[in-house]
Specification:
The complex is a heterodimer of chains A (about 260) and B (about 160).
Chain A: H1 3-26, E1 32-34, E2 38-41, E3 44-47, H2 49-59, H3 64-69, H4 71-80, H5 83-88, H6 90-105, H7 118-134, H8 138-142, H9 144-158, H10 165-177, H11 182-187, H12 189-194, E4 204-207, H13 220-224, H14 245-254, E5 260-263
Antiparallel strand pairs in A: 1-2, 2-3, 4-5
Helix pairs in contact in A: 1-9, 2-7, 6-10
Chain B: H1 14-20, H2 26-30, E1 36-38, E2 51-53, E3 88-92, H3 107-111, E4 119-121, E5 127-129, H4 139-143, E6 151-155
Antiparallel strand pairs in B: 1-2, 3-6, 4-5
The chains are: A mainly alpha (about 260), B alpha+beta (about 160).
Chain lengths: ~260, ~160
Amino acid sequence: MSRKNVRTLVQAASLVLIFLIPFLNRKGITAIAGTLYSLAVGPVWITDPVIGVQTILATMSLDTKLLLSILIPGSVALTWGRVFCSWICPQNMISELFDALAEKTGIKRLFNPVPSPIPRFAVLAVALLATLSLKFPVVSLLSAPGIISVQAANLVYDAAVGAELGLIVMIALFELFIVRRIWCNHVCPVGGFLVLLRFKRTMKVTFSKSEERPCDGCGVCVETCRLGLDPMGKKLYPLCHNCGDCIAACEGVKGSANPLRFTF
Amino acid sequence: MISRPLRPPGAIAERQFLATCIRCGKCAQACPYGAIRLAGIMDGLENMGTPVIRPRKNPCYLCMKCPSVCPSSALKRTLAKKEDVRMGSAEIDKKTCLAWQGTVCRSCYDDCPIFDEAVKMDDKLQPVVDKKKCVGCGICENVCPADPAAVVVYAGDVS
């Protein structure tokens, strides 16, 4: 199975889980419980790192259990980069779906800015500052994956959804007609924070052509990238979320002599 | 609209609660009775996504499953005894309470989980609430046959 297919499978599984977990909880099976804000897998608690930081700022206190629960996702991000975004996040899934739809139907967006990480850092900074000054968890209201999974649970429980879902609808419409992939590339504070957990040895897409790994500039990687990035370019990070689609596409053309690879 | 929502057992003081709760909905998932619901935008932006209990629809049965699952300590995780819960306290409206109006009724007394302590019957067989013992679970409000309920739980800050 190609890497791309594996990713699609993982994405589909995580989508199923955000409905299945609340369903099983309802039936009294609570081994896995929670949402993409915070999840309990048996005794192991996993909390979105930016939500943990938000709570520190909003309460000006440290909750040991909360801090411990950001260790696992934090370590994952330090090791493999933003694979949460590319492999698990339901917002990314929706955005990719709408991006593919726009491509198929030939919808042209109103603006086509070159993706830049600066707006996303600005949003994160403003959201965290607002959290601190208002003593209110602003980031929670801006966590698209959190909102989607909580509303999935609401749907399972009450057959109803909350107004929070309005944000998700707005993102979809915006990305379809105004700016391609604006949420993940330019706004999302969840991804924006995971980016900060990156260092020299974090897994990254590396483009290094050589005699053994020649690149003839076919551009299949650029076409494949659902974030609209150029894997052959120098400014791939901090925007790339390591989905691996470009590598899979390159492999499809070049086989094992692909100039695009994941390296640490 | 709710002016002052009733929170799940173990909720810290309201202002801190609004700051600490990450709106993850885990307590609502932990509630086997479906009593914990998530507030909507009609409850105000500050409440949106936070857990609320609407006793007239579905009260808290004090199973104590929710406090320990809270990832951010918006609910005191160590709270385990139902007698220690202080979600609020019940108030009886003597003008509409059937027993106080002369009909025989002891629904709230019979169903109170802090039995014969939080709600007692006085010598005229009229229910009275002991605010020191009442945990604010809302079972009395739920079972009250008067419409609207003659006994209502008001949320109270416990710090």
